[in-house]
Design goal:
The protein is of the alpha+beta class. The chain is 37% helix and 23% strand. The chain has a domain of 149 residues. The chain has 16 helices and 15 strands. The strands form two sheets. Strands 1, 2, 3, 4, 5, 6, 7, 10, 11, 12, 13, 14 and 15 form a 13-stranded mixed beta sheet that branches. Strands 8-9 form a two-stranded antiparallel sheet.
Length: 447
């Protein structure tokens, strides 16, 4: 979106922001918030505070910097209202909360939480910050709704660095799965309607995350790494003398070893989503397993999904799900496919809403900037959905020229997968609560 488009949508943006402005405290902060969101959506080359202040009418660099880095307003209140808005606009009882993380490359050692760590943004270990994000996805659309800054343990234990960056005393070290679980719990507490949780192997391999989602009574389809271990039958246990605990008699095996025992007849082709040129297919096999969590079997059996791409050199992925047996495999495969929506939302937040273009170093600045970017993305998603509906209505008017749905598809809130294979048996996929499309795939762990 460029500046002229933002100006055209200014009445809609003013109306959208009306419900949020009281959350920014003092009246002068209301104007700063409006200017900042305008600037994030304005399409200028770089959307840091200085450039935004120079690009929007009435912007003052020092004042805007203070608004982001120091002003007294609670980003948690803003995001709480975002989740209410998302529930109203996109809510569906069969919806999904997806979690994922992304890196923010930084120089030096002063930016809060920065360290040399893996960043999928760069595809290597680099000096960066990492944020863990949650989005909401339903058949109505998808958008970002929450985030947490990952604070490495060396930061959490360094009082001097914490004080310089303004890290609150209540903040302690939390792993990425723990941060993700906090966001899922928060969404449930606030009444966000969802039944499913999705995530890659960072979260599927985590007993903390998977167990926490089970405790909430939610279903998940989570990626697991090829080294995740399972039992194909519930293992017998034996007591360890003097320890008061039991351990399995037999050893668990890796899901990669399980996959090696499968034959071609164990797989069937399933449509997972709709692409711009037709349905997208993978081959899936399913087994009942007991997942090893910290060396012990889960109390209940789960479903292990082995997915492979089509072609002579297929890529194999593994997913675990606690969904009951009466949920068809096709629905689980499609449920897993909606995890791409958080990747698309992260990309859109960076490309369209300046999520990664901040230059503030402190705790408050990071949280203020990212909250405003999430807010800007919600406006963008709702407007593109609104305009898409309007165009669809116009297309149905007498004498109007008809276009394919792919031509009307918005890039935010909806997307399209580039990989297309025609469904062989012509069966209709299960679509309840599922988005229609997906972006390009990536390997597990790349953020």
């Amino acid at each position: 979106m460029d500046g002229s488009q933002v100006r055209q949508l200014k009445p809609e943006l003013d109306t959208f922001l009306t419900r949020y402005l009281p959350l920014f405290g003092r009246p002068e902060n209301h104007e700063h918030a409006q200017r900042f969101v305008y600037g994030l959506l304005g399409g200028q080359e770089r959307r840091n505070t200085e450039n935004i202040a120079e690009a929007v009418e009435g912007g003052v660099v020092r004042t805007m910097q203070k608004f982001v880095a120091q002003a007294v307003w609670d980003d948690c209140d803003v995001l709480r209202e975002v989740r209410r808005h998302v529930s109203e606009s996109l809510g569906d009882e069969d919806g999904t909360v997806n979690v994922d993380e992304t890196g923010f490359p930084k120089k030096g050692e002063k930016s809060v939480g920065v360290k040399r760590q893996y960043s999928g943004t760069l595809g290597r270990v680099e000096n960066c910050q990492v944020g863990v994000f949650a989005n909401y996805c339903s058949s109505k659309g998808h958008t970002m709704m929450d985030r947490r800054l990952f604070l490495p343990n060396e930061w959490a234990e360094d009082a001097t660095r914490r004080e310089e960056a303004g890290v609150p005393s209540r903040v302690i070290f939390r792993s990425k799965p723990e941060l993700a679980l906090e966001m899922v719990q928060e969404a449930m507490k606030e009444g966000v309607p969802f039944q499913w949780v999705g995530g890659d192997c960072v979260y599927g391999d985590s007993p903390t995350f998977a167990g926490g989602v089970r405790a909430l009574g939610k279903r998940y389809v989570l990626d697991v790494s090829s080294e995740a271990r399972v039992w194909l039958a519930k293992p017998q246990m034996r007591n360890v003398r003097g320890s008061g605990r039991s351990i399995p008699i037999t050893k668990a095996i890796s899901v990669k070893e399980v996959a090696a025992t499968l034959s071609s007849s164990d797989f069937k082709r399933i449509t997972v989503s709709e692409g711009s040129q037709g349905p997208i297919l993978y081959e899936y096999a399913e087994l009942t397993v007991w997942v090893s969590e910290e060396g012990l079997p889960c109390e209940t059996a789960e479903r292990l999904l082995v997915r492979r791409s089509l072609g002579q050199d297929p890529e194999v992925k593994f997913h675990r799900s606690n969904a009951p047996p009466d949920i068809p495999l096709q629905c689980l495969a499609q449920q897993r496919s909606c995890r791409w929506t958080i990747e698309q939302d992260i990309q859109a937040s960076k490309g369209e809403c300046g999520l990664d273009e901040y230059e503030t170093r402190g705790w408050i600045g990071w949280h203020h900037h990212t909250a405003l970017s999430v807010l800007a993305l919600l406006f963008l998603v709702l407007q593109k959905l609104r305009l898409g509906k309007k165009r669809a209505s116009d297309d149905r008017a007498p004498g109007a020229q008809h276009h394919s749905s792919s031509n009307r598809s918005a890039s935010l809130g909806r997307g399209r997968d580039r990989d297309v294979v025609q469904l062989a048996d012509g069966k209709k996929p299960c679509r309840k609560g599922m988005p229609r499309t997906a972006p390009a795939r990536r390997t597990c762990g790349a953020k």
